[in-house]
Specification:
Elements lengths: L11 E9 L17 E7 L6 E3 L5 H4 L12 H15 L9 E5 L7 H6 L3 E5 L3 H9 L4 E2 L5 H11 L2 E7 L8 H11 E12 L1 H7 L11 E2 L2 H9 L3 E9 L5 E8 L7 H13 L4 H27 L4 E4 L3 H10 L9 E3 L16 E3 L3 H4 L3 E4 L5 H7 L1 H5 L3 E4 L5 E2 L1
Parallel strand pairs: 4-5, 4-7, 5-6, 7-8, 12-13, 12-15, 13-14, 15-16
Antiparallel strand pairs: 1-2, 2-3, 3-9, 8-11, 10-11, 16-17
Helix pairs in contact: 5-6
Bound molecules: thymidine-5'-diphosphate.
């Protein structure tokens, strides 16, 4: 069994989600006999306080030339990343002609704001297809995984960074200690690391266990991030909660004793201690809640099926892969799932093999129920699909609890 990736100590087993395919492994029907599965379990380390996957597929299996997630699918997210840009550019942490690096910049949704405002910048992105979208808009891109060698290469060719940014990326990197060393190595002494990720505190509070899938090798708390970066001589200087991904946290880190530590750091860590994010019992309770949530969703879908109702899914998120496979939901219970991503349409959901349809047809189809898998984009989607509700269609939610809206 894998030991903690930070402390090297044995992990306590928390959840066992059984055999799971890749969260973004949308598949053509002709390939289903070659589908890849792994045992998805989570563990907690009492020393580093890091909640993490026990086994994880090889990163090259997940991030490649056919990576199915394009960041710019949501208007809300485009706006969010404009605000992220404004936060960094007005933070007061940058030098006069700053050099900005983004790790895992995907299709450029964040870094394009720096490019458009003439910042010296570099996006590092290993998935070729999404990197191409960014490159085609004139963003400087290095197609690589970020590690120590990569940090040296960037330092030698471009110089040290004023800011290293990442959004929904750091939790993808299994060798997290090397990541922290690479960040420390590439930053100027006065530089800052600003990254945001789905927040463990929200996952525990809302039982949003769909945030657990192959790409999310870690779900961070401020306590665990502090512990990790302390190991390389860095510290948290600010924490800013975000509403994205159903609850995220923006972490701001710098070399020790460079900047004043904002009150938010003390306050949020105090809250986390109260929530028990440092305690094994909290995670054991979380597992019980996950089991209850699974049973409730299955019961509801089976009842609707028995009553002859037509149920579809809306938005084939990576998160939905965990729900569908863990609950054993296939196209018997959910006929198909509507989505906007061209690369997914016409394929099947990973493992559960529910057909994917173009969201354009949702309006004509008028099912009676739709499970909203992108519950984190609920406001945007419910507004966009007003006609569904006004024609009597009902949304099914499973976070923070299973309910019909
Ligand atoms: P997101 O929650 O960002 O996904 P993930 O769990 O993969 O991180 O949602 C992205 C997916 O949701 C993507 O497949 C596109 C789909 N989607 C829609 O189909 N319609 C929408 O209006 C939105 C916002 C997303």
């Amino acid at each position: 069994m894998q030991n903690c990736r930070v402390s090297g100590k044995p992990l306590h087993l928390i959840n066992d989600f059984g055999d799971q395919p890749l969260g973004n492994g949308f598949i053509e029907s002709k390939n289903i006999d070659k589908e890849y599965f792994y045992n998805m379990r989570t563990g907690f380390c009492e020393e580093s306080k890091m909640f993490q996957l026990i086994e994880q597929p090889e990163p090259s299996k997940m991030f490649h030339e056919n990576y199915a997630f394009f960041s710019s699918t949501s208007n809300y997210m485009k706006e969010h990343f404009k605000n992220f840009y404004s936060y960094v550019s007005n933070s007061g942490y940058l030098s006069k002609n700053p050099f900005i690096v983004e790790l895992g910049c995907n299709d450029g949704i964040l870094i394009k704001n720096f490019k458009e405002n003439d910042y010296s910048h570099l996006g590092i992105e290993p998935s070729k297809n999404v990197a191409k979208v960014a490159k085609d808009t004139g963003i400087n891109i290095l197609e690589k995984f970020f590690d120590i060698d990569c940090s040296n290469l960037v330092k030698n060719e471009y110089g040290s960074a004023d800011a290293i940014l990442a959004a929904n990326v750091i939790c993808h990197i299994p060798d997290i200690l090397e990541l922290a060393e690479g960040v420390k190595n590439l930053l100027k002494p006065s530089g800052v690391m600003v990254f945001e990720e789905p927040y463990l505190g929200d996952v525990i509070k809302k039982t949003s266990y769909d945030q657990i899938y192959d790409e999310h090798v870690f779900l961070f708390s401020a306590i665990s991030v502090q512990h990790l970066f302390n190991k390389v001589g860095m510290e948290l200087i600010d924490l800013i909660p975000q509403t994205t991904h159903g609850g995220s946290m923006r972490y701001v880190l710098a070399n020790k004793n460079q900047y004043e530590i904002k009150r938010s750091v003390r306050e949020i860590i105090k809250k986390e201690l109260k929530q028990g994010l440092d305690k094994l019992e909290t995670f054991e309770r979380f597992n019980q809640n996950v089991i209850l949530s699974k049973n409730k969703l299955l019961k509801l879908l089976k009842e609707l099926k028995k009553n002859g109702k037509k149920v579809v899914g809306y938005a084939a998120t990576s998160k939905s892969t965990t729900i569908l496979n863990y609950c054993g939901i296939n196209n018997d219970l959910i006929e198909y799932i509507y989505d906007t991503t061209p690369l997914k349409i016409g394929k099947l959901t990973p493992g559960s093999h529910i057909p994917l349809r173009d969201h354009k047809f949702f309006k004509n189809d008028m099912p009676e129920y739709a499970v909203l898998f992108a519950w984190n984009h609920a406001d945007e989607i419910i507004e966009k699909e007003k006609l569904f509700s006004s024609n009597g269609g009902k949304w099914i939610f499973f976070v923070p609890s299973v309910k019909i809206l």
